[in-house]
Queue: 4 jobs
Job 1
Amino acid sequence: MQVQRVRPAYRQVADELRSQIMCGLLKPGARLPAESELTGMFGASRSTVREALRVLASQHLIETRRGVRGGSFVVAPDPSQLVDDLGGLLGVLVATPQLGIGDLLEARLLLEPAAARLAAQRADRDTADALRATAAAPRDSRDPSGFVTHMDFHTMILMATGNLMFTMMGQPVSDVLRTRLDRAAVAQEQWQNVDACHIAIAEHIANGEAERAEDAMRSHLLGLRELYGETWKDQEED
């Protein structure tokens, strides 16, 4: 016997309102009808409507304002906020058996070489110069490993594609990896190798060498995968 699962009422209300927001029927700045009106429109209880509005607020699609002119208003999705949320969710999942560090590194290995290729094809001179400068930046005494700058370099390449989806897919993975590497356990020679790889990748991108940029990024990430894998194993044993 096949049974069709029925969604909770508040999700049905949230889904309908989300659909109207995403298709443009409800535009940014538009005020939603009052709760009493929504209950009548959907034939739902006030608690159902309130829960639906909380769902939309958690997805940064509406915001609630207080006062005489208050209410629930549609807001334009903020990509940076969505990226932060995805990074937080990935961080939680990595702590469960369902998602491991290997999954993140494998996804990164598929995404970032393609991003390096596109960056080489699309980056303008200012972007290329910024990549070169970041790759060759001197170490900050507060971060002897240069790890923060290293991660920023990868983020810049994602952004240099000019495709927001690359940043939205890659940045949350990078945010999780920031917390999963024991920087002190990495030898200075390894950091120096990372620096050299970044300089080479930046040069390929600046020179418009798409295939070389892709190959260099892939080789670089394969080396990093071993480094992260060793660190992750130690954390699991603890």
Job 2
Amino acid sequence: MQASSPRAPALDATERAIIYRNMLSRRDVRSQFVPDPVDDALLARILTAAHFAPSVGFMQPWSFVLVRRDAIKQQVHDAFLTANHEAADMFEGAQREAYKTLRLEGILEAPVNLCITCDRDRAGPVVLGRTHQKAMDLYSTVCAVQNLWLAARAEGLGVGWVSIFHKAAIRDILKLPERIMPVAYLCIGHVSHFLDQPELEKAGWRQRLPLEDLIHFDQWGGEDSDDALRAEVRAAQALATNGCPPL
């Protein structure tokens, strides 16, 4: 019998369960913020997690604009309201009315607002790994967002991503230089509770898609007779839907 190749050790079952549980219980928080301040040491930890995200060419294109002044939050909230009214009019009929009932931000309630930006020139005009896909710096910045979000959930902090803005308005309010791209505007703070389902799913806006319908084999639309894998995928999603780590 051929000996197996050396492998890096996996985390033990308890550690894996904690990581999966953190991912499955992460939520986009809008209305559960409480006014308690976020401790500086805690804020430093989640910012550090964001800074240790992967980045193409190790360019680390992100910067972090902390917003804690009420006057700035109010300006951002006003910019959201303008865009949100426009967004509602893009839907029709019952969907428009349903949209108007949704809570889509916690800008004023969250003790900390954070804009994560991308400096597209940070590593110069030619960046390893971005030579043929120019958006890789933006994707790297989104990895920093996800790192921060998961770290915040582990710390019991809620995070809400507000995307309904005109970028020019945010750029003007935060006085961002022209080369700096605002990627994510986040509301961060302690919360009264985390919902057991994503808020839009709970409200009936959309349901989670079956994972097995999203897997292709070798080419787009490619079929495969691996029924065992499909069964494992269905079982793992069922466990995850019930909040259980798919271990």
Job 3
Amino acid sequence: MPTPRFLTLDDVAETLNVSWSQAYALVRRKELIAIQIGGRGQWRVEVDELERFIQQKYAEARAGSVPPEPAAEAGAPAEASEQRA
């Protein structure tokens, strides 16, 4: 059997080890390109597109351009004020 060209959002979520809603959020924000088949939210992601997304995230991590976690953002101003003191 040939390798499938498209993945469901369930497949994407499993591959990335995230929830379905997190995978869907990536599609909504256009971080991960997907196509919609039919009218009832049947999203499909090409295997090559998922691989491109993963490689892009690794490149961002290597470049240090990964945004901070929300909890870290809350602590950022305090750290900045500590440095000024």
Job 4
Amino acid sequence: MGTMTVDVLHSLATLPAKVWDVAEAIVGLHERDPEGPVSIVGGGRIAGETASHQEIQVTEKVVSLLLLIAGFNFFIGMFNFIPLLPLDGGHIASALWEGARRGTARLRRRPDPGYVDAAKLLPVAYVVGMVIMVFGVILIVGDLVVPVSLDG
């Protein structure tokens, strides 16, 4: 789990650049990186190729498919903790900020500053939501136009 966490954090840090590389591969500027990100469409394709491959033993197929599913779920869970508002991490960050403000006010013997108005961050949430949708569309189109394959 520790190695997987480090790998996911590295993947999250390089995700925008990797999605840009997929977009360049879609328009034919260079080949698609077989180690790059895939959407659920690409993941399904890889799972199908693994399941139908004749040279892989059944136990290896099962382990590979379980690791693929676990990897997708773990990445989505870690992605959800990014401290940006439409994601759960944004709500957690806002709650932590509220707690820090209240704690500081309590230590200074000042009145409770009140709740944090997360609605003020809605423009940020809209931008982040749009970026997530654009990333999803680019990856899905990439998986349809220049798919990642087990053979290549």
